[in-house]
Amino acid sequence: MAVKKNAAGRKxxxxxxxxxxxxxxxxxxxxxxxxxxxxxxxxxTVDKKPAVKKAASFVASPDISKADYNESSASFLSGNACFYxxxxxxxxxxxxxxxxxRDSKNPLLERLNFLSITASNLDExxxxxxxxxxxxxSIDFAERDIAGFSIDEQLERIDQKTRRTMSxxxxxxxxxxVPSLAQEQIFLRNYDELSDQLKAIADSYFKAVLYPIITPMxxxxxxxxxxxxxxxxxxxxxxxxxxxxxxxxxxxxxxISNAKRTVNEEKYMYATVQIPTVVKRLYQIPxxxxxxxxxxxxxxxxxxxxxxxxxxxxxxxFYRVMRNADLDIDEDEAEDLxxxxxxxxxxxxxxxxxxxxxxxDIESDLLHYIVNELEVDEADIFSVNGPIDLTxxxxxxxxxKAKHPELCYKAHEPAEAASFDGPVSGLDIFEQIREKDRIVxxxxxxxxxxxxxxxxxxxxxxxxxxxxxxxxxxDRSPIIASLLEAAQNxxxxxxxxxxxxxxxxxxxxxxxxxxxxxxxxxxxxxVGLKTHSKITLxxxxxxxxxxxxxxxxxxxxxxxxxxxxxxxxLFTANESFGEDASEFFNxxxxxxxxxxxxxxxxxxxxxxxxxxxxxxxxxxxxxxxKPARIIAKINSLVDETVIKALYxxxxxxxxxxxxxxxxxxxxxxxxxxxxxxxxxxxxxxxLEHSRIFYFYNEGYEDIYLxxxxxxxxxxxxxxxxxxxxxxxDCRARVKxxxxxxxxxxxxxxxxSPDGSYHKLDLRGKEKLDSQQKLIDLADAAVAERHKSxxxxxxxxxxxxxx
Length: 802
Description:
Helix content is about 35%, strand content about 20%.
């Protein structure tokens, strides 16, 4: 197929996708957005050290046999000696998830989940990250990234990497997963692989359920090619154009003067059908041999003649487009931010097409037609050997889980929160927090303390106010229900709802409206910044005066994702924390510019400088011959300044362990630059999401939790919070988490000097799965607490003397 390309390798497109209603954005040069609040030169926070030094208790890292440094191998991920490219590192993370799908040691249905997650991650990567690069490419943005790559070089490498990953995804699906499922009497079948009896069952389903739903869209001079939604599966149909057959228009009576007659000399006619999403993607047919699952698009294709009665179908093909889904909001110009985001979300469905997926057996004329109608560049066509959009595999896991529990992870029920004195529903949670700081670790421990904290605050007559930030919440959020109840009970309720939380915009808009209607004070944050911090402040009237109760966390107030995301949360009634929290909310809702805080360290004000100062302090201690250690558990490491500070600390002799789930632009294990830095990424049944920071500090051991990663967006363009863990029991719990994850030999992938990740050779080594170990520890802690309670001997009071 001859497609004209420009110098950048993409087809010249002067019509800007007018046929598809494309919303073409004008890219802006990336720049640091200025916050409403300004940095202060005043003292940032007050250091408080324990009086007694403690020895570091962390286990040594497992012995890692690192590959020899290979510059040619590393050059694919980097154009210089210091940093890896952010986008390619993201794709490396997807490969680690794909590795779990390919690992036969994982339960079979969980492997389907991992492949589904890989597909979903890749989709998001394209509609957000690739879309952003395309925007910059469109304005000839010339600046190179920290890895030394131009925009064109990044896109070229992304394309190569993605095609390799997708090839491996479908190889895993076809050669490993589908046959393995068949061995367990779970059959994934195309329609043409069915017996005549099963075909009849599928045909009946089409007639009874699918046919009434489907809308075939013919294309001719009066009916243009329809708008194709982002990520929706479609079927294109090619039909014989038979002039001798009477068309509907030619049946028009003389009374319809404007009736059109078909004058179509083309050999073929075309139509398109959107595969309905209101039904399950897989139609399940129980049989004596097992359950047969047939993709509904295959059933529709087999019965396509019914949709075009009287016509001759020549060929059919499935396809899907991905569109630019990055919102482009000018907050300074938007008069009503909520309405502007609502409009942007609606337009997202028809953003510029950045990728077209088809199956590799598509008929060439049909492909040519689709490409011309959608105005897609040949370089943006991805053909796959199997069903388009493998995210449906997670639904297959759900459908089979009850009948095949042995093919899934052992069911996990979160333990009670061991730091509380029992199930929180039976406790006065304010009394518990007033007594001492409490820490919870999800999903190993239940999310109930967080829900109960807000629920009791809503119902407690002594609570005067509740203030909370919300970034992502569930569709049926009990947190929102409690806030609504609090407002109805006459309490002062202030909620910051972040409308710009990507792909949660619609959900957040709906909740914001409901909260406003209930009488809550709802704000949308600071202009130019996303509010990503996780904080709840409860103000309560007590006998000795007003007391503030606080919950701070690394993860969202989402009761659904709390079951699969690992996060830590702190409950405290510490006065200094409470005072800082009041300042924080005043900064969000008013014009307050804090000069110094006592415990909380916010971004974009002071957090980045605070981190750099702690890293430099460890380097200075190492140069002075003192023990020095840094441990950071984060989701992503991208910030150039932080990475350079870590390199300097490594060269000074600081032992640095980084647990980075996703993107990592730091190059570890390079002699003379980072030989003292070890990077590991843990993948398993739970998504690692907590942010933990440890600095040895001459034995005083500074331990922090945060909502932020070491990324420019978190440190410079978001409202985030870093907070210290000071209670001895809470500190011990956080150190235990780090200790276990550093000892992981099963789930950990280690970053090699050449940029690849590898698992440990476990021959002769102890196997330790950190996530399973933390499950066991959470259960054991509760059992120990119950045992301690049972040991209390009942001693009756003495009878009073008569």
